[in-house]
């Protein structure tokens, strides 16, 4: 089964073609990602209307570059991100997919972006073709950490989830982005903070670990961001003193990262203790974080599976892969009725 995937939920326009063999394995024939991050860096965050305009500009050139034929021959299904995400951005992918499905008379699958992130851990690498893929055994505890979401789920089987907890305010990636902004670093903040944290002292500032005492599986990151803001107000860092102030910018990045990741790892550990899964899946943009990967592996005594780094960010290959899961359940939809849904939920 060959699936064309489209993704436009935030600031990446992506088109992919995958050949799905069964639920668990697929081959990526094409995977193209046009990132708008540099554009949004000018504004310090994603502006939905700007994102939508950029998606419009590159969608059809990307389809052409992916070698998608104009009559859709060789494509069995189209899978598109229907939500969650930014409505103006989502709509570009959804309307393009509807038009193609209508013109080609092919089934359309509306994919939940977060299920796409889950499917990304089943994706082979393109950059390292020989790299061994460790597939998660189910049931799995899933930590989904992106710029818009932070959720802990129990994945009982493909497409069967129980929501254990989620953030009550900011998502983990959002916290990295907002703290980066406070520190004068560029959007997206996650990679900037984690790179600087490598040479910082993780115990320099004792930032709070929000919700660790709540004994549920919810998260909250806005208090941690405020704690960094309050700290910086009392202890301003001037750019010329970045390396000479104590604690330095690097120390603050490392201390913030330690606090955020302590919470993510500890809540996941407690979910493992309670639900006794066979594996843990960590995915979404923040799963690119090296320290998160190390800490998950060090603190958990069962297999922890992450996507290959190239598929941690938003990409259409993961959307096509999740589309294959849904196609196996005959869940295609009437192409003319699909709508972008910013609040689409997994469970
Ligand atoms: O999944 P994603 O690409 O887009 C959404 O669906 O939101 O996630 C983007 C988020 C951004 O907040 C970005 O700062 C964060 O992932 N991120 C990271 C790292 N790389 C990306 N956060 C922490 N450490 C990283 N290395
Ligand atoms: Zn995402």
Describe this structure in words.
It is built from 10 helices and 10 strands. It folds into 2 domains: 2-132 and 311-327, ATPase, nucleotide binding domain (Nucleotidyltransferase, domain 5), CATH 3.30.420.40; 140-307, Nucleotidyltransferase, domain 5, CATH 3.30.420.40. The mean pLDDT is 95. By secondary structure, it is of the alpha/beta class. 37% of the residues lie in helices and 19% in strands. The longest helix is centred in the C-terminal third of the chain and has 27 residues, at 249-275. Bound molecules: 5'-O-[(R)-(carboxyoxy)(hydroxy)phosphoryl]adenosine (KG4) and zinc ion. 5'-O-[(R)-(carboxyoxy)(hydroxy)phosphoryl]adenosine (KG4) binds at residues 10, 146-148, 173-174, 176-177, 188-191, 194, 284-286, 288-289, 313-314.
List the defining traits of the structure above.
single chain, 347 residues, alpha/beta, Nucleotidyltransferase, domain 5, 2 domains, 5-stranded mixed beta sheet, 10 helices, 10 strands, 37% helix, 19% strand, binds 5'-O-[(R)-(carboxyoxy)(hydroxy)phosphoryl]adenosine, binds zinc ion
